[in-house]
Amino acid sequence: MAKAVDYELGPHTFPRGWFVIAEKSELDKGPMAVRFFGRDLALYRGESGKPVLLDAYCKHMGTHLTASDSAMIVRNGHQIEGDSIRCPYHGWRYNAAGDVDDIPYHDGPCPKSASIRSYPVVDSMGCIMAWFDEEGGEPDYAAPALPEWDHPQWVQWQLDHLGELAIHPQEVLDNMSDIRHLGPTHGAPAEYFENEAREHIYIQRQGGIMQLYGGVMLYTTTWYTGPGLLLSKQVWGDSVQYELIANTPVDDGVIKAWHGCLVKAPALPVSDEDRANAALQQAGALEAFATDFQIWRHKKPALKIMQLKTDGPFRTGRKWYSQFYLPRAEAAALHSETNGIYHVQGMPTPSDKGHAIDDDLPI
Ligand code: FES
Ligand SMILES: [Fe+2]
Q1: Mutate to test the pocket of ligand 1, among 54, 57, 60 (most ligand atoms within 8 A of CB)
Q2: Arithmetic mean of pLDDT, 32-51
């Protein structure tokens, strides 16, 4: 299992950015014990509805804040107070900022040294997304959100939980530049292709005949917002959908992944049949994506790619991805090197084929 240092990405072990850490419907059932970024974490929803993510362990005696469902304070429904959470062992109360603000058997100020780290979290598109930054900085871009998510003609996804995969996320990100796997792996060789790097965004525009979708022409615009969240607008025949693929580091060299499709119904009002069709469409997209997943599960790390001139721009993609492993100031400087549009030798571009750049996307 290769680690961040083996890819020479930069000084950080885990990338900076917004990541999916749970599905909203999971968190709605109650506090969760999760592990990401090499850390055990406590995730819960406050009474105001605010999702809160804290380092997991209480400073008093090391109890995991959200791993007990049998402690009486949990069973009695008294663990969450406002947006704060009480430790199930002795009831110290942590607020959403990670500071202890009440100890049931102690008068006077609570120890500042009891504070634990709190991470920015948002609800977006049925996902709980957290901001991670090894330097502890605030987000420098917004978590992705599609305006279509709340539109009544779009059928929302319920995520496929793909579980953990012992692969470094670099190998997942390589897919964005990888024009030459589209035929052998997905049965949809590209007829046009380009990548664009734009600060923290990396875009792929391509299209080709898709064997799995019955031999129709599939047009896609796919983009990463930061290192962990892929959205892809996909159009074929009269169909249009957005696919989500999320990867989040669990430990160095291990990711967790999720998948979903937001599907436009033919007309309003949306029927049960439309919902069933949307679920089938998501299953079809998962079948296509699962081929990548199976290859990743069994491949050796590509620490260096033996790149041909007619391969996609892997080096640019990797350089773009490395920004998330650099201190922020260096990442900003890297943009002047990576920002731009990249084509592949011998391959038509979207404009060669008359496909205008998709300017209506929230990229
Ligand atoms: S271990 Fe958390 S309150 Fe004692
Ligand atoms: Fe792929």
Answers
A1: 60
A2: 98
Q: Please name which of 132, 188, 184 lies closest in space to residue 20, comparing C-alpha atoms.
A: 132
Q: Between the CA atoms of 171, 124, 205 and 357, what dihedral angle is there, to the nearest 10 degrees?
A: -150
Judge if 295 and 153 occupy the same domain. yes
Judged against a pLDDT cut of 80, whether residue 343 lies above it is answered with: yes
Q: What token pair was written down for 207? A: 């299209």
Ligand number nearest CA of 92 is: 1
* Residue 224 sits in the same domain as residue 274: yes
Q: 245 CA to middle of ligand 2, Å?
A: 11
Distance 190 CA to ligand 1 centre (A): 57
Measure the CA–CA gap between 344 and 178, rounded to whole angstroms: 10
Choice from 65, 90, 94, 110 to test ligand 1 binding pocket (greatest atom count within 8 A of CB): 90
Q: Are residues 125 and 158 in the same domain?
A: no
Dihedral sign for Cα atoms in the order 32, 250, 331, 226: negative
User: Would the pLDDT of 360 be above 90?
Assistant: no
Q: What is the pLDDT of residues 317-340, one digit of tens each?
A: 999 999 999 999 999 999 999 999
* Domain finish residue from 132, 163, 188: 132
| Each residue's pLDDT tens digit, 148-161 | 999 999 999 999 99
Is residue 141 in a domain? Answer: no
Q: What is the pLDDT of residue 212?
A: 85
